[in-house]
């Protein structure tokens, strides 16, 4: 079986997300969603991978169903097994429902102009909704207008809106806890917001020193909520410990162009994945001391780079912040040896990786750790 299966889809893919598995599931994920951008007719699509009931391997991803989407898909998250929340460049936020009995998608709920620029006439021109994060039933969105919305699925009006939460563009958002979120913006700042507080001010602000490099993406460590990874315009990976200081713990040289997404592996968070405008997708592995691995593991089409202690501010506690002397190195593998156009999105779940590119293709690797 090929390690990576590809499918050309005649659409530039802006987002790719695995459907979450039921709590007790043992099998690998088998359905993912994609969203497109910069096409005349953008679409949200659901795809199946893996094996059919007969045990026959599907090979390339198979289209289950798709539906038109107004505007570019800017971000996308599964709310649960059946519902997907999609952020649009038009400023709207839409919840789509996947009907598994007849493999169709329909609009379940929509908040029009959740994000907008208000002009002098107080008419509202749409501002792109740049990021969405879900913790069912809650949905948080951020946008170019610097606004933060807290929605609840099946409720028509926003539960909470923080207008002008930021004077610059908010690019991404993640939950720290059920009541706290963290946003990143276009001037290199991270801000923590506590929904229990009535005032519309961040409870903490962190920033990259010196140049105000726009941050494009953020992810929180799944087990240690104080550890956060961000990526931005300069392609650098920053690791932050939000318990201490206001600056990153580590700044790691990474991609040669914008980093579009960063994801800790949800169940193996010693592994982290980043993708970039430069056409690369990197697997950062802090799980073992590389020097103990047999050298044959480094061969093949993979470029492996090592970072010594000094490069990384004394390595990376919990692997990412650790001062453990055995962690001499971090292994970095580019999973796309022949890179071409931008890799806009990736998602990891279990042994599976999915990613989408401007080369109008989606790729699935189902043996990530083999």
Automatic annotation (TrEMBL):
Q: Which domain of life is it from?
A: Eukaryota
Q: Which UniProt keywords apply?
A: Nucleus, Repeat, WD repeat
Pull one GO CC term from this UniProt entry.
nuclear pore outer ring
Q: Could you tell me which SUPFAM superfamilies the record lists for this protein?
A: WD40 repeat-like
Record lineage: Eukaryota, Metazoa, Chordata, Craniata, Vertebrata
- The WD repeats are at 208-250, 252-288
Q: What protein does this entry describe?
A: Nucleoporin Nup43 isoform X1
| Gene name tied to this protein | NUP43
The entry's localization annotation reads:
Nucleus
